[in-house]
Amino acid sequence: MRSAIVLALLCAITVPSAAQDATLPTSPALLAIVRLAQDGHGDSARTVIDDLLGRTVPGDPLFAEALYTAATVAKSGDDARLLFSRVVVEHGTSPWADRALLRLTQLDFGTGDTEAAVLRVRRLMNDYPDSPMLPAAALWGSRAAFERRDQAQACDWIRHGIERVGADVEVRSQLEFAMQRCGIPMAPATTPAADRVAPSSRDVVPPPAVATATPDRTPEPAPVMRSAPVGPWRVQVAAIRDPASIRRVEQQIARAGLTAYRVPGPDGLIKLQAGPFDTREDAVARVAALKAAVGGQPFVVRVE
Length: 304
Fold this sequence. Notes:
Helices cover 52% and strands 9% of the residues. The chain is an alpha+beta fold. The chain has a 4-stranded antiparallel sheet with strand order 2-3-1-4, with helices on one face. It starts with a helix and ends with a strand.
């Protein structure tokens, strides 16, 4: 009963859609559930979406989007992976299947499984050739291919993404910046130019030699891990296991002028958070910059 009342209240909330991320739900009630989780009320969000799924039949057009929403607010990466996979397998013809494939690609890349990420992108491009997710998939696929030293595949996807990107200025700038690597042999090199580009294009993953650099070759100081934050708000930017990816994200957070925090998660996941911030508004103001610097889907959390 309580979750039904909460859902009714959420349905009455008007959520601005002008700046909405294309990978987020579009139904106002479901988008409000995601916002609830992003505001630090993950348990409440999961209770509401579980109640909605229990009252919605799989044949209902809303079911696939609700399942996708449940994956978006899932408690762990494994739970999210399972739910996104259900969207792809059980609702492959829905408008959410290609988005679920993109999110699975991001999860794979975040955990260091670049082979799986490449395979996801290939499937998305083959099964959903007209998907609006193709430019973003091309960007993430190229990152995974670069890490696998498959420059030909990476550059092919970047070119394809640029051809399809349309009016998405942010993704276009990231793709065009990534294209600079297509004229450079895949060899160990520093990337000083990356530090001089606009923040909107700095989330391109550094070459593998930089991502796995030993401490004596890493120009950035080791991130400071504080036992107690100055403020109660942070921005969570990733949840990953791979040590090299963790170090890379910490360096990107440090370059953004923030402190990186490692928060243990379930099944060996490490939640990487940036902060601290005294107010939620301060944290929200840095989300866009952190997304540009790190990628993924950063969101604000409150540290209890």
